[in-house]
Amino acid sequence: MESLLIHACCANCLLYPLKVLEGQFQRIMVFWYNPNIHPYQEYKRRLDAMKQLEERWNLRVIYRDTYPIEEWLQAVVFREEKRCLYCYHERLLATAQVAKRGNFSHFTTTLLYSKQQRHEIIKEIGESIGRRYGVKFFYQDFREGWKEGIRLSKGLGLYRQQYCGCIYSEKERYYSQGKGGEHRQTEKVGLSFTKEEVSGE
């Protein structure tokens, strides 16, 4: 039986992938594990949105509700420019491990919905981990449904985050410098969202 465990980075990014995956698998479950979301109040808002969607869409969700911020920071300090790779690897690894224990034939991630994420790297990491655990990594480019996902999210009234997750991406999203607080673009090593990307315009 073809089955899929899909890692959800947030409720908003889950909407479109779930819609297009219906009918492709006989069993689909969602896995929440996102130790990269900071600060804790932001993590809680996104977790609450996931639970809201779970109830509204009658989803089956596995929660690994932990907040190991100290461990996360220790792993990326002095390697900030590679922090996204660490995030990809840790969340895909956890998803594959749960998929293996749950006898899922495939696993994937909603990171593949975001226009901000590095698809080729995610695919490479996912396939490598999949081979190690004997669970196939399912790749599909969900970016074509970017605006549809935003429409669904707004219709459901879900909390819509303004940055990727970690404190570094929060700084990239909000920190301003220069006269009058005018934002001056600095070199980016992570991911943040523009106003247009958040609104879907």
Task: Offer a few descriptive terms.
single chain, alpha/beta, Rossmann fold, 8 helices, globular
Tell me what you see in this structure.
By secondary structure, this protein is an alpha/beta fold. Helices cover 47% and strands 10% of the residues. It has a 5-stranded parallel β-sheet, with helices on both faces. Helix 1 packs across helix 6 and helix 4 runs parallel beside helix 5 (119-133). The radius of gyration is 17 Å and the shape is globular. Residues 178-189 and 192-201 have low confidence and may be disordered.
Shape: globular
Order of helices and strands: EHEHEHHEHEHHH
The number of domains:
1
How confident overall, as mean pLDDT?
89
Strands, helices and their partners?
Blueprint (H helix, E strand, L loop, with lengths): L2 E6 L2 H11 L5 E6 L7 H18 L3 E3 L5 H8 L6 H19 L4 E4 L9 H15 L2 E2 L8 H11 L10 H8 L20 H5 L2
Parallel strand pairs: 1-2, 1-4, 2-3, 4-5
What can be said about this structure in brief?
The protein has 201 residues and is an alpha/beta fold.
